[in-house]
Structure formats: C-alpha cells, structure tokens
Design a protein that fits this description.
- This protein has 459 residues and is of the alpha/beta class.
- It has one domain (2-264, 388-458).
- It is 21% helix and 18% strand.
- The strands form 4 sheets. An 8-stranded mixed β-sheet has the order 7-8-13-12-11-14-15-16, with no helix packed on it. The protein has a 6-stranded mixed β-sheet with strand order 1-2-3-9-4-10, with no helix packed on it. A two-stranded antiparallel ribbon has the order 5-6.
- Strand 11 and strand 12 form a beta hairpin.
Length: 459
C-alpha cells in the first residue's frame, strides 16, 4: 500500500488501507511504502512534523497489523526494532539462522539516498533503532518476498557490498525455545551506538500493547519535538555504519512460484545534465542544499543498470524522483524507466515499476535551470523552469503505459475518495494539488498463482 504522506491525515490513510485490505483478504504480507519515514535517525527524525505524522500513523499501522513500512526522506539508513505502541519490541523469537520468527510489531526501514544526492547527519541514538548507517555513498535495498519470508538486503551501489540484511519468517508451527534470546540482528560492529539498547529489556512489558483501544492516549506524541535540543549531532557525523560484509552476489535465478524480488530506489533527486551550470548560481545551490546535482543523472542511470542486473521483477520508487519537481527531469526519469521496462520485457521477463511522488516532486517553486544562470550569483536568481503538476505526474508515470498499460485502477469513484476530495476542495478551492489523487491498485499474477492469488500492489 503506497501512501502519499504529504497528506498528514491519519483518518484518510486509515480509510484507504482498510478498504484495500478488505478487498484483498488473502494477502500474506501487508507492506506500506511512503516517502516521509516516521522512525528514522537523521535530521528529519526530531522535527515536530515527523512527530505529528508518527502520532497519526503508528496507531493505524499497529491496528491493521502492517508487517513492514519502507520509506526514505531522511537520507540515512535505519532499520528499526519491530515497533508496537510507539515502543520497540525487543523480546522476539529467532530461528537458527538468526531470522526473526512471527515477530510482534511493525518493521520500519528508512532507505538512504540512491543517487548520493545528499546525506544527513545522524542524531544521537534513539530507542527505536536496531541498526543505523550513514556511509555517505549511494546505496539501495533489495527485497525478496515468499509466502512465509520477507528479506531486505541493503547494498553499496558501486561495489555491491552488503551492509545490512534482515529476514522475517512467518511460521505458525514454530516453537520458541524456553531460554531468553538476544536479538542477533542489532549489529555487533564494535562502533555502533546500539550498546545502549540493553536498557530495553524493560520492554517485555510490551505484550500489553495489543490492547490497541488505548491508542487515543497517543496525542502525547507531540512531546517529541523536544528532541532538537540535542546539540551533539555533529559529533555523530560518521554515525553507526556497521561492518561491511564482503561482496555478496545477488541471486540470478527467479523462482517465480516461490518468491518475488524487489528493488527500492528512494530520493534519487535527479537534476538532468542539461540544467547543470558551471557558475556561481550553481555553486550557491550546492552550498545551500548539499545534493550531488552534477552527478545525479549519471548515478540514477547506473542504479537502473544495477536493477536490471539484479534480475528483480519489481522496482519501487517512493518519492523525490527529481531535484525540485522539474518537468523535464520527470520526463527523463519516466523515459529511462520505460526503456528499462522494455529492455527487461524484451528478454521475456516480467517487470513492473511503481512510483509515488515525494515532497520535492510536485508544484515545487524551486525548480531552476542553472545552465542559463551565468549572469547571477544566487541560485534563487537563476531562471525558473516548469515543474510537474499532479496531472502531468499521473500522465508521465501512470497513464503513459509505464505502469501497466491502462491496467491501473483508480479509486476515483469510491465514496471515500469523493468525500476526501470534497473536504480538500473546501479548504483549497480550485486547486489541482489534492493529496491522495494518485491512488491505484495493480495486480501482478506470477507463476502457478496466475489468475488466482498473485501479488497485489495497492497505492
């Protein structure tokens, strides 16, 4: 389920997810993708807007028993503990391979920048963190899903070295050992900040959390904005990186009857090369917003090559595709994604791309053409460019055939959508920008499940 978290309403997201889950009662896994992570580790993690969004969303994820939430936005990597009631669930069961079995709570993954556009400094340790990393190099995550396992593996893009991997197993027959187990996935790299986590054994009290009707007490979450008082964040510049595992090769064969391989590219922030300038205005942009603008197109192109070579069947892009919503940038990204899809399908393989917009992608007033800014010194004085509207975004990525050749089903006629649309129009009359207007449902039937159960991606 893909949520446009530019919209802050928990009620709207809950209504959508309830409708989607009810329409697919046999789903084995409930996975959410959104742009703004609610459990991350860098500068966005301590903002009041993040605390508010977390307070709105985590009770819903808890109630609906969401398995995994994949996000971005904070330009650092975080794998949370499984969370329930805004509390880390430390007391879990693990099998002999170190995989968590039948965990309590939701796993939250924050992906770092796939293009290397910019990196945020890590904040001091927080209770929700199981593993955090700020390698300051482009990275991506590879996801494999079977009927009873979910595995995410995080790679350094240019070397394909693994720096984090984690597997969830669902096994109704599993019998946990009698002795208490330690979490083998919290990181033992010697330099991690995680040794503070032993304070968490108080958490076995958390089995009380399934009493979700107590969730209305959660408005206490706005206390979170007190976190910006931590001035030591600069001392954590290198953060907790974890030990880089020797080069691990991605699988080359896809058993279509047992697993689905997924790649995730987040926060690519592509600025096309024709808009890059060699002038003071461009340097001003670099100094104020530490993105790797000049290299972002080449890095994005290289990441798509990695996607193709990984032999995955699905690519998820949870927002901030472009630097600042430049329409030409979106046209380039959509064109390259279409080429990738056509190349893979020409080899006789199934491949599907799913994208959602991030906060940089739509109606952004900061879009600039720095190649035409030789006579100015400040980036704000550079010529503005056309930025994408929601309808243009929809046309480029959804209605062009990139995402299913018209097989995307919009919920435009649903009473929930119509009511939400009417409510927004009362607040923002005559505005095209309506959060939630890009909802879709798409079904991918694979192997023996073709026409039967398959995998449904809902957004």
């Amino acid at each position: 389920m893909a949520l446009n978290t530019n919209a802050r309403s928990g009620a709207g997201h809950k209504a959508f997810m309830e409708e989607a889950i009810a329409a697919h009662p046999d789903t084995d896994w409930k996975i959410v993708i959104n742009h703004q992570s609610i459990y991350s580790s860098a500068s966005h993690s301590t903002r009041s807007s993040t605390a508010d969004l977390r307070a709105n969303l985590f009770p819903i994820f808890d109630e609906l028993e969401i398995d995994v939430v994949l996000g971005g936005h904070d330009h650092s990597y975080t794998r949370s503990h499984h969370m329930l009631g805004d509390q880390p669930q430390i007391d879990q069961n693990y099998d002999s391979l170190g995989r968590v079995v039948n965990p309590t709570g939701t796993l939250y993954i924050t992906n770092n920048s796939a293009s290397g556009s910019k990196y945020y400094t890590l904040k001091p340790p927080a209770p929700h963190e199981a593993f955090v990393s700020q390698l300051r190099v482009p990275t991506f995550s590879h996801v494999e899903v079977t009927d009873n396992t979910f595995t995410i593996t995080a790679y350094i893009t240019d070397t394909m070295e693994v720096f984090d991997t984690y597997t969830i197993v669902k096994d109704p027959s599993f019998q946990p050992p009698e002795e208490e187990q330690e979490d083998p996935n919290s990181g033992d790299d010697g330099e991690t900040e995680q040794p503070e986590q032993p304070e968490q054994p108080e958490q076995p009290e958390q089995p009380e959390q399934p009493e979700q009707p107590e969730q209305p007490e959660q408005p206490e979450q706005p206390e979170q904005p007190e976190q910006p008082e931590t001035p030591e964040d600069n001392s954590k510049q290198n953060g907790t990186m974890g030990e880089v595992v020797p080069n691990v090769e991605l699988p080359t064969e896809l058993d279509s009857n047992s697993q689905v391989k997924i790649n995730v590219i987040s926060d690519s922030h592509v600025l096309i090369e024709s808009m890059v300038g060699n002038n003071a205005a461009f340097e001003s942009a670099l100094n104020t917003d530490r993105k790797m603008f000049a290299e972002s197109q080449a890095i994005f192109d290289a990441s798509l090559i990695n996607v193709k070579e990984s032999n995955s069947s699905i690519l998820l892009m949870p927002g901030d595709l472009t630097k600042d919503g430049e329409l030409q940038g979106h046209q380039y990204v959509a064109e390259e994604l279409t080429k990738l899809q056509e190349e893979i399908e020409a080899e006789g393989k199934d491949f599907h791309v799913f994208v959602v917009p991030g906060n940089h992608d739509l109606l952004n007033l900061n879009g600039r053409d720095f190649s035409q800014a030789d006579d100015v010194d400040n980036w704000r004085e550079a010529p503005t460019v056309e930025t994408a509207t929601p309808s243009q975004f929809r046309e480029l990525y959804y209605e062009s055939g990139l995402m299913g050749n018209g097989e995307i089903n919009y919920y435009a006629e649903s009473h929930l959508y119509q009511k939400y649309l009417a409510d927004i129009q009362q607040i923002m009359p005559n505005q095209e920008f309506v959060h939630g207007s890009l909802s879709y449902s798409y079904r991918v039937d694979i192997g023996e499940n073709e026409g039967k159960k398959g995998l449904t991606i809902i957004g």
